[in-house]
Write a structure and sequence with these properties.
The chain has 180 residues and is an alpha/beta fold. It contains seven helices and six strands; from the N terminus they run βαβββαβααβααα. The longest helix has 18 residues. It is globular.
């Protein structure tokens, strides 16, 4: 099986997850890791599986990835996996906040897969450290309480942590095991 992992990353956090996917997949399959800027859309037909990674921006996937998704061919031979990083609490920790600030990412992947008739095998996401500008935005707009901010900021800055990276390994490993 030939697998492409393509990603867009601004702070390097989404790239960390892409690299984990690549390490797991390359143990048993041909795996190609590319930044979005290095990819030519016409080469997608060379792959059996395409893993697409993005940071979360304004509760959705980053604009360059959304543009890329819009250019995917209809009825391709490849299957698709999505992954994204965000600077919000996880859904398990704060469902309301997660839905408000991260909630469009999964539907963007699934809607694209449905419209393009691509078999979507699932998604992975985790909290990840933000750029200083995004930290300021989060404090100004999302986590405005100073006491909560003092707890949240150290947690944010250590993400993704070892557990998140293990979760990424397990996620992609299980999918690859099912695919054979």
């Amino acid at each position: 099986m030939k697998v492409l992992i393509v990603y867009y990353s601004e702070s390097g956090q989404t790239e960390k997850i892409a690299e984990i996917f690549h390490k797991v997949i390359s143990k048993k399959h041909e795996s190609v890791l590319k930044k979005l800027s290095e990819l030519k859309i016409k080469t997608l037909t060379d792959y059996d599986l395409v893993c697409i990674g993005s940071p979360c921006h304004s509760s959705d996937l980053a604009r360059p990835i959304k543009k890329f998704l819009s250019k995917l061919p209809e009825n391709p031979k490849f299957k698709m996996i999505g992954f994204f990083t965000h600077s919000c609490y996880t859904k398990e920790d704060d469902e309301k906040l997660y839905e408000e600030w991260v909630g469009k990412c999964i539907p963007t992947f699934t809607d694209t897969a449905n419209k393009k008739n691509i078999e979507f095998l699932g998604h992975f996401n985790c909290m990840a450290a933000a750029t200083p500008a995004i930290e300021k935005f989060i404090h100004r707009k999302i986590i405005t309480d100073d006491d909560e901010w003092k707890t949240y900021l150290p947690l944010l800055r250590m993400k993704p942590d070892d557990q998140d990276l293990d979760n990424a390994r397990n996620f992609v490993g299980k999918i690859m095991e099912k695919l054979g």
